[in-house]
Design a protein that fits this description.
The protein is α/β, with parallel strands linked by helices. The chain is built from five helices and 14 strands. The strands form three sheets. Strands 1-2-3-4-5-6 form a six-stranded mixed beta sheet, covered by helices on one side. The chain starts with a strand and ends in a 6-residue tail after the last helix. The relative contact order is 0.14. Residues 24-29 have low confidence and may be disordered.
């Protein structure tokens, strides 16, 4: 099955929210995966409904508020959906201080995750692998989702086009983030498409050669 990606830029922080689906995943309640549903998911919900898509999983790259805010809205629309986050970020979902939403003056929490992820785990959609890569440093349980069949990695706030995630928030660790990028992202093929949590897409090859914060 050929997987494709739809991108929605939502909320006041212009989060990139991604829908990963396959050729056969449309109409009749077809399955898909939603990655990092942040604030203002109304357009996303309407688009999924229009295409007859049912999210099977919500995958979170990390537990910050702007990446988790839409989880409960998706649960209300599709009660069977399973939210998945790395175990080390799980507590953030239920704590406005930990998920830093309180620091932005709009504290909120969402229900606990139904599934706890671990580094190296392999998930599946339409018979294709979704690999959980450890990319901590922005948060303790930060992960990226690598889909080899479409040469694409979803990096959340770990790696951006010509930049990296901030590490001046609670539990941030610059050395850990740089090491994770070198060891787990820069080892991917040059042509790998990088879809970050904010901003423009890029490629692993470009970032390896040109990213001013971390080169290899």
């Amino acid at each position: 099955m050929n997987l494709t990606v739809d991108t929605f830029v939502l909320g006041p922080l212009e989060n990139n929210v991604y829908v990963l689906r396959g050729d056969g995943c449309d109409g009749g309640g077809g399955a898909c995966v939603v990655i990092d549903p942040g604030m203002g998911v109304g357009p996303l919900v309407r688009a999924l409904r229009a295409d007859g898509l049912t999210p099977g999983r919500v995958l979170l790259t990390h537990g910050h508020g702007d990446h988790i805010a839409g989880c409960d809205a998706l649960r209300r629309e599709w009660p069977g959906v399973r939210v998945a986050v790395h175990a080390d970020d799980a507590a953030m979902l239920g704590d406005a201080q930990l998920n830093v939403s309180a620091a932005f003056g709009m504290p909120f929490t969402v229900a606990p995750a139904e599934e706890l992820l671990s580094a190296g785990q392999v998930l599946e959609l339409g018979g294709e692998d979704i690999r959980v890569l450890p990319t901590p440093g922005h948060t303790p349980g930060g992960v990226s989702f690598y889909v080899p069949s479409i040469a694409t990695v979803f990096t959340g706030d770990a790696l951006f086009a010509n930049s990296i995630g901030r590490t001046d928030t609670r539990f941030g660790d610059t050395a850990q983030l740089l090491s994770a990028i070198r060891d787990h992202l820069y080892t991917l093929p040059d042509e790998t498409r990088v879809l970050p949590g904010h901003g423009d897409e890029t490629t692993i090859g470009w970032e390896r050669q040109h990213n001013p914060y971390v080169r290899q």
